[in-house]
Amino acid sequence: MNSLNNSELDSIKTDLFKNYKVSGYDEALNENSKVRLSYKKFLNWFKDQEYSDLSKKHLDANKLFKITGITFNVYGNKQDREKLIPFDMVPRIISAKEWQKVEKGVSQRIRAINSFLNDIYHSQEIIKSNILPLELVYNNPAFLFQMIGFRPPNNIYNHISGIDLIKTKGSEFFVLEDNVRVPSGISYMMKNRDIMINLFPELFSKLSIKNSKLYPLNLSKMLKKSSSSNKKNPVVAILTPGVNNSAFFEHSYLADQMGVELVEGIDLSVIKGYLAMRTIDGWKNIDVLYRRIDDEYIDPLWFKEDSLLGVPGLMDVYRKGNITIANAPGTGIADDKAIYSYVPEMIKFYLGEQPILKNIETYRCSDSQSLKYVIGNIKELVVKEVHGSGGYGMLIGPFATSNEINSFKKKILANPKKYIAQPTLSLSTCPIFTKTGLVPRHVDLRPFALLSKDEVYVTPGGLTRVALKKGSLVVNSSQGGGTKDTWVIDS
Amino acid sequence: MLGNTADSIFWMFRYLERAEHASRLIETGFQLFLTSKENIKSEWKSILKTSGSENYYYQNNEQIDSITVIKFILKEPSNPNNILTLLEKARNNAKKSRVSLTKEVWEATNSCWLDMNQMLKKNIYDKDVQNILFQLREKIALIIGYLNNTMLRNEILYFSYLGTYIERFDNTARILDVRHFLFLPNTMIRNDIIGETQWEAILRSLSAYRAYMWQNQNELSAINISNFLLFDEKMPRSLKFSLDQILNYIKLLKKNKVKDSVSFNLGLSIQSKLVSRKKNYNYDFGLHNYLDRLIKSNIKLGNLIEEEFNFHR
User: Fold this and answer.
1) Residue A195, min C-alpha distance to chain B (Å)
2) Which residues in chain B land under pLDDT 50?
3) What CATH number does the domain containing B110 carry?
4) Which chain A residue has its CA at the smallest distance from B311's CA?
5) Residues of chain A numbered 66-85 and touching chain B (CB < 8 Å)
6) Which of B150, B184, B215 corresponds to the end of one domain?
7) Residues A173 and A130 occupy one common structural domain
8) Which CATH number characterizes residue A376's domain?
9) Which of A97, A102, A92 has its CA nearest to residue A175?
10) What is the CATH number of the domain that holds A139?
11) CA A20 to CA A22: how far, in whole Å?
12) d(CA B303, CA B311)
């Protein structure tokens, strides 16, 4: 495809970008409002499309999502429980060169996290070396004393990770958050690709877009490899909390794609020291359990005793080495928001390497200096609960009312260890499709990574979440965010 | 295959079959409503009785009125077996065992539910009924079509057929049972309720009118109709056909262990009960008792299948 000369670029801009006002870093336009190299081929094609056709395709796309049943459940809303995550059809495009760095950085980070988990449940060198304070670990509910001294199969804890990345002022990606408990969103990444191929096959034949659909294959390979059994073909199952869980669609999608059973607690029982599922021909043993429920629910004998989601005795099977649980119980300690701030140190400590991806500057309120700073500058900061997730329990200083700020200040002072703060970041923007043309909206990126004993697989691209409201920085689906396809292309 | 999955597949298809059956009941009633108004009330009463929802109807309605009955069967929340609820139950079972269904079967099921919801949400008038029923049956046919053409020939498919035929056996038996008086000896039938229209209605509500007429030289007679619906081996809604299918799929599931299968053995005994009537057929006293026993045995068979294949803990 010919690259665009300047006059063509200007014509793209007048038509498509007439309502587009760049402030901060934009993925499609540079600081002089010129189209970036990575977007040129796409926009060159895009400008030749009839806008009415595109509008129709946009509707089609959201209809397709509804028919395929790609929904998530909203808790506490009885009327309309199943919601669609709004889909935007303008892809987020990352150049292959830029991606290389992300891939290496993510891989490095999850290896360091796994080393940390091995360490923290065994000799705790990182604490002995005074890098990480003991109380940060021991006072953390995600740290499972039951896991101390236990070696999971192949020494792997975080088999599956999702690392949240953002750009702020410049082109560099920063790590916002690590998700190593039960990261979700992968099904949207794959479905977004399906829908894009369905809507615009011509783009996929013309451009060389990296294939993001190999994830289930790699997941299945990794899970089988993680088994400690000698079976040639270990039995894998996905454990879901059930059809009413917000991510049920994803659980069934992954089971479908991998060709494994999707099980619930009621299907399972411990039989003769093994975990077994109830089939039409009787009980059948499971070797690898990819659980999509939190630690505290997996075994009522060991954790929450009223949990009906898990299996009584599962942890005993695990401790006997008769099953692999992915991710390993106790992994959650590593994605705690306070522990997060130590990951760069972990990379140096365990791998002897310099971090490839940087962290966002983070103030730990447990530290009295930082606490003072946070209280004094709360209007400019984002304050997060250390154990919160999904965008709940956070304060965005610049957008908060003085009432909200005062009540949050009280909460922080009452229990400073529970909070961290970060500067208010202007996330980078990306074009989204609207009736009146393209407009910029804030995005983040969640690549997924799979760790097995001999390799790390990082999805090319990942899930791009986008805040659909003008100026909004909250991309979480539970708070009205949408998603778009993510392309890694050779430009 | 998980017992739990077998459970949801089995019931998904029971609900779909039940919904389709209910749509055929409405269609039959609606045809009578358009063509012969004399007996329409007793016909709607029979229909409500067949679908087992007569009591629920009278909780909120004093009178039988065609469009009220139709709405009641289609979507009235006070009717636990309204078509919309049945479709929702089928769809939720499909969602639960989404992994076991092909993309085609799942999407057809999901669309059926989404579209019918949309359509039935509006107020319904006489002029809409035919289109609604047509759409509904086409959408269900699409699910069944995809089931037949895209699914592997394995246990999952067998359980979907088991659900279908257990339900169908029940539905056909009930249609006959509710109108068993139509099969009494001629001398005992009150002239005002008999009519060829009623026999025709029975056949039509089982989509069997043309098939019957083909086989019986366009002649309606009590004995031929009951033989056709009870014993015909080629008629896909007869009791004999449904039971043969049930036995066949249990056999495929149990393979060489079929002789020890409790559900298979109960199926065999229902079969001999069913055909015994064919041999010593001395006109139609006792049709009601006979059908009643068959319906109860079939319910038991459904329960035994659930037990034998570990549907529940």
Assistant:
1) 14
2) 192
3) 1.20.120
4) A280
5) 66-69
6) B150
7) yes
8) 3.30.1490.270
9) A102
10) 3.40.50.11290
11) 6
12) 10
Flag if A252 and B310 touch (Cβ within 8 Å): no
Q: Which domain holds residue A250?
A: 99-177+213-351
Residue A434 and residue A91: Cα distance in Å, rounded? 14
Split into its structural domains, chain B has a count of 2
Residue type, B42: S
Nearest by CB: A243 against B6, B95, B103:
B95
Between A and B, how many residue pairs show a Cβ–Cβ distance under 8 A? Answer: 56
Which residues of chain B lie closer than 8 angstroms to A279, CB-CB?
Answer: 1-3, 310
What is the torsional sign of CA A92, A98, A104, A110? negative
The alpha carbon of A15 is separated from its chain's Cα centroid by a whole number of angstroms, namely: 35
Which residues does residue A430 pair with via DSSP β-bridges, in sequence order?
A441
Tokens of A388: 């919160």
Q: Are residues B170 and B313 in the same domain?
A: yes
> Any bridge partners for residue A488, and if so which?
A94
**Whether residue B181 sits in one domain with residue B304:** yes
Q: What is the largest CA-CA distance in chain B?
A: 58
User: Which ipTM score applies to this complex?
Assistant: 0.83
| Same domain assignment for residues A137 and A249 | yes
Give tens-digit pLDDT for A392-431: 678 888 888 999 999 999 999 998 888 899 998 889 999 9
* Rounded (5°) CA angle A38-A42-A47: 130
CB A187 within 8 A of CB A195: no
- Say yes or no for a CB contact (<8 Å) between A267 and B2: yes
Instruction: Give the nearest partner residue to B107 out of A68, A249, A253, using CB atoms.
Output: A68
- Cβ distance A280 to B310 less than 8 Å, yes or no, reads yes
- In order of A121, A134, A348, A352, B98, the CA distances from A126 in angstroms are 11, 9, 11, 13, 45
Same domain, B191 and B97: no
Q: Lowest mean pLDDT of A199-203, A438-442, B274-278, B296-300, name the range.
A: B274-278
Is A325 among the domain residues? yes
Which residue in the set B3, B99, B110 is minimally distant from A279, CB to CB? B3
Judgement on whether residues B86 and B200 belong to the same structural domain of the protein: no
Q: Residue A371: inside a domain, yes or no?
A: yes
Q: What is the CA radius of gyration of chain A?
A: 23
**Nearest C-alpha of chain B: how many angstroms from A210?**
25
Let me know whether A316 and A366 are in one domain.
Answer: no
Residues 116-145 of A with CB under 8 A from B: none
Of B4, B98, B107, the CB nearest to A252: B98
Q: Chain A residue with minimal CA distance to B101?
A: A256
Q: Using 50, 70 and 90 to split pLDDT, how confident is the model at A175?
A: very high
A53-95 pLDDT tens trace: 888 998 888 888 888 877 776 655 455 567 788 899 999 999 9
- Within 8 A by CB and 6+ apart from A154, the residues are A225, A226, A228, A452, A453
Specify whether B125 is located in the same domain as B211: no
Residue A205 domain flag: no
Co-location of A169 and A289 in the same domain = yes
Task: Tell me the CA distances in angstroms from B278 to A278, A361, B232, B234, B246, one per residue in order.
Answer: 42, 86, 11, 16, 20
pTM for the whole structure:
0.88
Q: How far is CA B197 from the centre of its chain?
A: 21
Domain count, chain A: 2
Task: State which residues form the domain around B48.
Answer: 1-150
| Residue A424, φ and ψ in degrees, nearest 5 | -70, 120
B252 torsion bin: left (phi>0), alpha (psi -120 to 50), beta (else): alpha
